[in-house]
Predict the structure of Kinesin-like protein.
Amino acid sequence: MHGGSNNSSNNSLNSSNNSLNGGGGGGNNFGTLNSRIKKATPLPTTIAKKNAQPLLNAYGIPISSGTISRGGKNSSFDLTDKIRVCVRKRPLNKNELRRGESDITELAGKRTLVINEQKTKVDLTRYIERHAFTFDDVFDSHVTNEEVYKRTAAPLVDYIFTGGKATCFAYGQTGSGKTYTMLNEKNGLYVLAAGDIFSMLNHPDYVNIIPHVSFYEIYQGQLYDLLNARKKLFAREDGKQQVCIAGLTEYECFSVDDLMKIFGHGNNVRSTGATGANADSSRSHAILQICLKDKSKKMSVFGKFSFIDLAGSERGADRGDADRQTRMEGSEINKSLLALKECIRALDQVSKHTPFRQSKLTQVLKDSFIGNSKTCMIATVSPNSGSCEHTLNTLRYADR
Ligand SMILES: Nc1ncnc2c1ncn2[C@@H]1O[C@H](COP(=O)(O)OP(=O)(O)OP(=O)(O)O)[C@@H](O)[C@H]1O
């Protein structure tokens, strides 16, 4: 599909300087990419706002303001909501089981998660303090990524085909399942969403829509291009207050396979930490974006989906005894997660002022918080007793 668009002057992945298969540019080796995948001309990344279209799904069918179809009968994403906050608990892992740790998390109904905190009185008698949190949805440890997708990101795929900006965040403690949920190469939300996006693009109405993929990370308030050897990037606001990331690499992408190859490359760059900085990916925020551009309108942005695997939330508390580098990382993570919470609160309260300038993370995601945007936050928690404090912090953060 969209094969006709491939003969433009963009830089092919398989040729010349900007080839990902060798040479300059990214200078990377990640196997032979499909020759159709092309590096798009670096953009001034203007964010189009020609999206005041009626809420129709990919097939021109109006999307009702109530529960919508794509998620099937289990979907409860109401597209009149700007934001949806869900919680997912992972199963106890082998180490936790070996240590004899118990599962202190308990689902109470469909939307409430209870934490049974083990406490000891001054007279050494033990007791359980129960903390209940209610969210838009709660996913138990046996729930699959496919089910999580149906109840979180799937309705947002419809939304980006109406010209909207959709964002899914995974927030939580290191090891709680953020990457497993969002950026898992087998069935992370981005793979499942891509499946739906590419099948919607088969419809003749979307013959002019070309998906462009970018993948970058934010580490210590600095942007790094994961599709171009972690080149430093700079975000700027243009005269129309639209935030552009100058020189961000984007690839045109025509199938889920294409997307997975591009992602696999970026993920490899991320985990190997080409510059030596940030050896630990849990200390950076990773942002994968699928941007639908309309070639009949000078490649203006039609819709956009951002998948964000946030840095481990407990990293924001790295202080005290930690070395200087770790403390600086901690304070930057803390700043960005607090700014994110403020922006989400503003979105939730339909506030006129969104404090997106408070951190690099919220600055580059400005269009996720204003205008025609919908956001889904998935807070991931570890169920073991040893993670109780972090789990409570995660749930308090996500609690609205
Ligand atoms: N829902 C789940 N079901 C089964 N296994 C899971 C689930 N969630 C996470 N895991 C497993 O738990 C481990 C940690 O998960 P993951 O790497 O996604 O954590 P994370 O929150 O992204 O951590 P980090 O911040 O270090 O990147 C992985 O081995 C993953 O496969």
Summary: Residues 324-348 form the longest helix (25 residues). Confidence is low (pLDDT under 50) at residues 1-35, 42-75, 274-279. Residues 90-91, 93, 172, 174-180, 281-282, 312, 380 surround adenosine-5'-triphosphate (CB under 6 Å).
